[in-house]
Amino acid sequence: MEFKVNNEKCVHCGKCINDCMGHALKFDENQIPVFDATKCIKCQHCLAICPTGALSICGKNPEESDLPDNLPEASKVLNLIKTRRSYRHYKYENVDRDLMEKLKNMLNWTPTGVNNHRLHFSFIEDIEVMDDFRSYTNGKMLRVLTNPALKHLAGKFERYKNAFLKGHDIIFRGAPHMVVVSSPVDAPCADIDPVIALSYFELYAQSLGIGTCWCGIAYSVIKMFPELCEHLEIPEGYKVGYAMLFGMPDVKYKRATQPEKFEMISVKKGIKNSGVADKLKRYFWNFAK
Ligand SMILES: Cc1cc2nc3c(=O)[nH]c(=O)nc-3n(C[C@H](O)[C@H](O)[C@H](O)COP(=O)(O)O)c2cc1C
Known about the structure:
Largest sheet: 4 strands, antiparallel
Bound molecules: flavin mononucleotide
Distance between the termini: 39 Å
CATH architecture of the largest domain: 3-Layer(aba) Sandwich
Strand order of the largest sheet: 5-6-8-7
Mean pLDDT: 96
CATH class of the largest domain: Alpha Beta
Structural class: alpha+beta
Order of helices and strands: EHEEHEHHEHHHEHEHHEH
Number of strands: 8
Strand content: 5-15%
Number of domains: 2
Radius of gyration: 24 Å
């Protein structure tokens, strides 16, 4: 892996060494950082923190990095979070190509555990492709719901059965697009990385005026019908992480919701060892599926 220091720019401050998660950097006898590629997780913190832009790693030129200016005020970010909604009514049209590219490009900055950075995104970018996917999947679901021998596959979908049989697009909510994120089964944080990516995706999309909806039902059906994974070109050795619908909204929310408050506690000092029964309960809950 390539790591270069511009000796004329390096001010020997050691910030890169101090911030390196894997302890891959140390000073040589001339107080210039030297690099151990075997310990590097390619997070580029050394490039990001260098006050003079003296470091290049993985062939990246520090001058091509965006700068942390022009950031939104905290109150605007909070307002975006509060007024974000799950959209279930979309215009029957494709999202503008430039917006689509912006959304896709943003995803490259989503964090992954140990900077594993091997997520796979399957985008349905064309409404006709989505309609094809929708009608195939709805056909499969219809067979599950109407064949008593397949009843066990319906699971939580049973509750939507009546609306589905009346022709409502319960799975895909009439959305023109969908993104499905998958991650390698051996990734250190395979289950959480896709969810983080979609959280970023949702907020950025909504800041651009694009509606989104987390789609647990699509996630379940994609897992249930392997041909859908094949069709989405999910690579071998990857598992489906989650699915999100999106498109230009056909409804407008005039105000934020007023959610019930979560329980939040402030942890105190002084850990006490628990008894065996309590420990077993905790193991059970923490490792329950
Ligand atoms: C993990 C997850 C899965 C969801 N799955 C679905 C789904 O399959 N279909 C759907 O219409 N909404 C789905 N939703 C949307 C929730 O119903 C929605 O977030 C909730 O009702 C609160 O509404 P809001 O997102 O507008 O605040 C899902 C949300 C989350 C976070």
